[in-house]
Description:
By secondary structure, this protein is mainly α. The protein has helices at 5-40, 44-64, 69-87.
Amino acid sequence: xxxxxxxxxxxxxxxxxxxxxxxxxxxxxxxxxxxxxxxxxxxxxxxxxxxxxxxxxxxxxxxxxxxxxxxxxxxxxxxxxxxxxxxxxxxx
Length: 92
């Protein structure tokens, strides 16, 4: 229980922010998961089309402070690497 009015307000604000942050993280995870599923199911073209939206979501979340910038960059890099491998022509 908060001891002061300002602490009580901070608790309320924290609760609201948590709900928003959880929702944003859920969207990001779902987006990344769908891209990985498309690659796994043999549809890398569709995954490449979905990638810019995923990048935008990650950048926006990092800008708002939901996730750290380096975390966003790491996830984007790993997904891009996966897409690069899946769309590369097979070596002869």
